[in-house]
Amino acid sequence: MNNRNPYNWLRWIARITGMLMVAFTLFFFIGEVIEGHQRHAGSALALFTPFMLLIFVIWGIALAGLVLALWKEGLGGIISLVCYILVYILNLFNKEATNSAHFITIFIIFSIPSILYLVYWKLNKDELRKAAIFKPENPDKA
User: Fold this and answer.
1) Chain centroid offset of residue 4 CA
2) Average pLDDT for 45-73
3) Please, what is the average pLDDT of the chain?
4) Taking 60 as the threshold, does the pLDDT of residue 72 lie above it?
5) Using CA atoms, how far apart are residues 135 and 1, in angstroms rounded to an integer?
6) What distance in Å separates the CA atoms of residue 101 and residue 110, rounded to the nearest whole number?
7) Among 51, 118, 122, 141, which residue's CB has the most CB atoms within a 10 Å radius?
């Protein structure tokens, strides 16, 4: 009997793209913190409004959802996708955003791993259910 999951390739694409998104964002964040600290003598956080800080916190939760999705694909994918949608909606009301019309592209790109995790989770759940239906109850009697 073949116990291999036919959708493993989808999970690996989601994992690789998700971790690339997390690493990309962390590198950007660390670079901005270092540069802001040097440029503003340690008061770089004072430049952000509470609304912008809220967007950054929700973005961080979305990234944490991508990390969680390494173990729990469904839960992590849902958390990440919901947070990205929330960030997109909040950014539409952000007056400090220079060009919020182009944010849809960023939203779509960063949502791809979340969507892939959810698709994998759904397909895997259906595959497990199908395998349970066709599995004999007692293999000794079959």
Assistant:
1) 25
2) 88
3) 82
4) yes
5) 11
6) 16
7) 118
